[in-house]
Structure formats: C-alpha cells, structure tokens
Amino acid sequence: QDIPPATPGNIPIKKALIVYLSRTNNTKAVAGIIHKEIGGTLVALELETPYPANYQTTVQQVARENETGFLPPLRTRIANMEQYDVVFVGFPTWGMQLPPPMKSFLKQYDLSGKTVVPFNTNAGYGVGSSMETVKALAPKSTVLEGFSTRGGIERDGVLFVMEGEKEKRVQNEIRAWLKRIKLVDKEE
Ligand SMILES: Cc1cc2nc3c(=O)[nH]c(=O)nc-3n(C[C@H](O)[C@H](O)[C@H](O)COP(=O)(O)O)c2cc1C
Predict the structure, then answer these.
(1) 123 close to ligand 1 (CB < 6 Angstrom)
(2) Which residue owns the Cα nearest ligand 1 atom 29?
(3) Where would you tag: which of 15, 35, 40, 101 has the fewest CB atoms within 10 A of its CB?
(4) Cβ(118)–Cβ(31) under 8 Å?
C-alpha cells in the first residue's frame, strides 16, 4: 500500500512509514486518514500470537504483560527501515499505557535520527503514560507532538466509531495537527 509522498512541508519527507496497532479499527481509521494526507507506507502491527477475542481476558493479559515487561513477538517485519525518515506510530491506550506490541516495535527497530510521530485513540481516559513511553523508547529520535482522539469503549460494547460526522471531525483535526507539526503545508 504505497502512495507517493505528499508535498513536503518544512520537514522534507523522503518517505513516511505509518505503523499502527488496532483491535477494533479506530486507530486503523486514524492511520488511514494520515496515510491519505501524507502518503508513504501503511503497516498494521501484527503479533505472532494474537490477543484473545474476549475483552476482559485481553485486559488481564495486557496488565500481566505490563507488570512483567513482556514484549510480545511481532509477526510484522519492516523491510529496509533505513528508507524512512518519518515514522508514525499509532496505538490505542491500553491500561493507561502504551500497548505491549508497540513497546515491542519500538524496542526492536532502531529509529535513531528519524522523526517519530505518535497518534492514539482511547475510550476517553486519555493517553496515560503512552506518549512518554514512546519518547523513552525512541531516545535518539525527534518525537513530535502526538495526536489523540476518543475512539471506542469496548468495555461498554462501543467498538468502531470513526464514521459519519465523527470521522469528518477527526479528519479536520488531523489536517490541522499535520500543519501544526509542519508535516504538510497544504492550505485547506
Ligand atoms: C485491553 C484494553 C485496554 C484498554 N484500556 C484503556 C484505558 O486504559 N483507557 C482508555 O481510555 N481506553 C482504554 N481502552 C479502550 C481503547 O483505547 C479504545 O477503545 C480505542 O479506541 C481502541 O482502539 P482500536 O479500535 O484501534 O483498537 C482499552 C481497550 C482494550 C482492548
């Protein structure tokens, strides 16, 4: 899924990689909007062993993984990381933290010298410590201001919400954010 790069802003984008983790497709939708605006390569982060379908079981597993620092092995492989100079990392908030698979990704790949751009969806409790963890796990990268929006509330059976008016609003917020962090210089 390669689209040529968008018109470069103040930061000349050679090539962007957009990596995202998504269970109920809200973060995936945000990733898709960013991809349309920026171009580059869009990659879903997949695990060797997927999380259970059951929400509560997943919550408990994630809590254990966060406690022990377990890094779930990834099935996804990024070929030629050197070709990218901007790496977007997208994730839901899980247990008020960065989800373990995104910790795996940031530990596994050397993003030194690259620009890292976090984005997030959550059930309304915010990003927790996730943005700080991205910075800590990409110590030699320039980490730009992240984007976050309210997604689903799986606990209450609210799954995918990025459609209709909500999707349009998020699209506008993303455009404004990309301009603010100078990754696009397009006028509306
Ligand atoms: C295991 C798990 C833990 C979660 N923990 C939180 C949380 O701590 N705070 C929060 O606001 N939302 C939490 N959520 C809700 C998700 O962040 C929210 O539904 C998000 O939009 C899901 O993104 P996705 O559709 O890309 O998977 C959690 C969801 C799951 C599955």
Answers:
(1) yes
(2) 94
(3) 15
(4) no
Q: Is 93 in the pocket of ligand 1 (CB under 6 A)?
A: yes
Which residue lies with its CA nearest to atom 21 of ligand 1? 151
Domain 2-180 in CATH: superfamily? Flavodoxin domain (3.40.50.360)
96 in contact with ligand 1, CB cutoff 6 A: yes
Ligand 1: centre distance to CA 40 (Å): 26
> How many C-beta neighbours within 10 Å does residue 83 have?
11
Ordered per-residue pLDDT tens for the chain, 188 residues = 666 665 555 555 579 999 999 999 999 999 999 999 999 999 999 999 999 999 999 999 999 999 999 999 999 999 999 999 999 999 999 999 999 999 999 999 999 999 999 999 999 999 999 999 999 999 999 999 999 999 999 999 999 999 999 999 999 999 999 999 999 875 54
CA 129 / ligand 1 centre spacing (Å): 13
Phi (first) and psi of residue 173, to 5 degrees: -65, -40
Domain ranges of the chain: 2-180
Nearest CA to ligand 1 atom 30: 94
Question: Nearest Cα to 89, choosing from 150, 153, 133, 154?
Answer: 133
